[in-house]
């Protein structure tokens, strides 16, 4: 009998990858599937990005690079942050990683250990709770509730901070809710953090380019008072439709960057060489393809929210960013896991139970609208058919 380390039992998984595998298995049997479960744009990356990476392969960029990434890429990241937010970032404080989730993993390995606590939103990207637990720290959830636009009040966090708190994780725009943290609450939170100088802020801004209604993303980098304890996570996956390239980064406080780079050396050595050249082209090249993609997401958002609100038992607030709708299903009489399963098995609609993102996701489903309008319309028609068949009109006790 082989023993594995006890920490392996504390590591969770991602519902999206599990449902995707099930949906693909059903599709292989000939069932028609509409996939709204996976969080990735259905667009190709901008064409000049692909050309830059192709050229880099052909030009012979096949070897290892410095572990934190090639300097021109880290300079391009600093330049992009300066152009977008008017902030100064030292390229020496940046580590480029194979996806931002690796930077998240590093941050939590650096900070978390038994006897410490890390505060995180719930429902949220499943990696937060899973990787906090894996580090040995105790996850302390902040419930994100619909009535507050799936955000929180500064005091919800400040009152949970104690001597054992190592870090808080923030994510705006958010997965799975599409919520954006209110700027006033961020100001209050940062002001309140002055009383807790031992607490690191991990700000996951991977959806920062996907924000609607003409609003601008507000980065935590702009708060000078916490720059010496802020870890910013971002990457190319969502904003440039480059999920499979595996390219992300973190900006670290000076005292942490060395730890992150040592983890990179021990873990993956470096991100694929030519991929890094694609990353430079994405940040420095024309943005018209990115803007067109975002305009398409905004249009799809209207369609999916409109259709969801016309369905019996379902209501959906307008997401302010990212590409997820997070409809309230409490009046359907189904709990989230049952509705997820039955929609997939009976109607071939792949969505995700809100509970895949934490206990506070009960009563919700997540649909990714990074899919064509035709797919969205088809999925919503099928959900409607399912609800009619199950006579959903009346409030009912939760079925299981
Ligand atoms: C909130 C959030 N953070 C991080 C990630 C990881 O992204 P990547 O590792 O592709 O950069 C995701 C992916 O779904 C996400 O939704």
UniProtKB/TrEMBL annotation:
Record-level GO BP terms: amino acid metabolic process
EC number per UniProt: 2.6.1.1
| SUPFAM superfamilies named among the record's database cross-references | PLP-dependent transferases
Q: Does the keyword Zinc apply?
A: no
What this protein catalyses is:
L-aspartate + 2-oxoglutarate = oxaloacetate + L-glutamate
Task: Report the transmembrane regions from the record.
Answer: none
Molecular function per GO: L-aspartate:2-oxoglutarate aminotransferase activity; pyridoxal phosphate binding
Q: Which Pfam families match?
A: Aminotran_1_2
CC cofactor: pyridoxal 5'-phosphate
What the entry lists under InterPro entries is as follows: Aminotransferase_I/II_large, AspAT/PAT-like, PyrdxlP-dep_Trfase, PyrdxlP-dep_Trfase_major, PyrdxlP-dep_Trfase_small
Q: Which residues form the Aminotransferase class I/classII large domain?
A: 32-382
Keywords recorded for this protein, A-Z: Aminotransferase, Pyridoxal phosphate, Transferase
Give the family this protein belongs to, as stated in its UniProt record.
Answer: Belongs to the class-I pyridoxal-phosphate-dependent aminotransferase family.
Q: What is this protein called?
A: aspartate transaminase
Q: State the taxonomy lineage.
A: Bacteria, Pseudomonadati, Pseudomonadota, Alphaproteobacteria, Rhodospirillales
